[in-house]
Amino acid sequence: MQLNRLIDHTNLKADATTAQIKKLVDEAIANDFFSVCVNSSFVKFIKEYNDQVRIATVVGFPLGAMATRAKAYEAKCAIEDGASEIDMVLEIGRLKEGNYEYVLEDIKAVKEACGDKVLKVIIETCLLNEEEIVKACDLSVKAGADFVKTSTGFSTGGANASDIALMRKTVGPDVGVKASGGIHSKKEALEMVENGASRIGASQSIDICK
């Protein structure tokens, strides 16, 4: 296993500058990371700066509480700008109140906007109990998502091994599981992989791969 090839090298900070995003791209290429993950305003810039790097971007980030049509349009624009993967935030409040049809249609709309591009659904595990994690995963798979993802990194917690194991058990072997949020070391990253993660989202990617 090449750990570097599982990593989405990430900078989603509100104060990220163009210079920092250039550095992110340069590091991703130098270390052969799978992709960079950035806010959507940088997608077109990256495509023009170096179109050799795979670009993931976030939609409905970080709360997930945006109108469905806004999420779908954001995904459409990001793909037109050059994104290969979309990491959308699930509508967490609707999930918790049991409005599963809303959650399903929300994901479906973004998946439709993605076309043949990869869709990851961020379920924000730190805000969910085990039953809700299972339901979020089930709805994501039903809606056609390619991955489920633990966290935005902007809520009350990040990835942990037990949640990864539960997500993998729920989605089975054919859907991706992305661990993100609070992964700072190789040991932590490998623990996620051992429990079923097929992708790692991290800003400390270089330290992780040392």
Automatic annotation (TrEMBL):
Query: Subcellular location, in the record's words?
Result: Cytoplasm
Please name the SMART domains in this protein's record.
DeoC (SM01133)
Which source organism does the UniProt entry give? Answer: Anaerococcus octavius
SUPFAM superfamilies noted in UniProt = Aldolase
Any Gene Ontology CC annotation: cytoplasm
Q: What does the entry give for GO biological process? A: 2-deoxyribose 1-phosphate catabolic process; carbohydrate catabolic process; deoxyribonucleotide catabolic process
Question: What Pfam families does this protein map onto?
Answer: DeoC (PF01791)
Q: In which pathway does it act?
A: Carbohydrate degradation; 2-deoxy-D-ribose 1-phosphate degradation; D-glyceraldehyde 3-phosphate and acetaldehyde from 2-deoxy-alpha-D-ribose 1-phosphate: step 2/2
Q: Which residues form the active site?
A: D87 (proton donor/acceptor), K149 (schiff-base intermediate with acetaldehyde), K178 (proton donor/acceptor)
> What gene makes this protein?
deoC1
E.C. no: 4.1.2.4
Classification via HAMAP family = DeoC_type1
Reaction(s) catalysed by this chain's protein: 2-deoxy-D-ribose 5-phosphate = D-glyceraldehyde 3-phosphate + acetaldehyde
* Family indicated by similarity: Belongs to the DeoC/FbaB aldolase family. DeoC type 1 subfamily.
GO molecular-function term, one example from the UniProt record? deoxyribose-phosphate aldolase activity
Purpose: Catalyzes a reversible aldol reaction between acetaldehyde and D-glyceraldehyde 3-phosphate to generate 2-deoxy-D-ribose 5-phosphate.
InterPro entries for the chain = Aldolase_TIM, DeoC, DeoC/FbaB/LacD_aldolase, DeoC_typeI
**Domain of life of the native organism:** Bacteria
Q: Which keywords accompany this UniProt record? A: Cytoplasm, Lyase, Schiff base
Identify this protein by name: Deoxyribose-phosphate aldolase
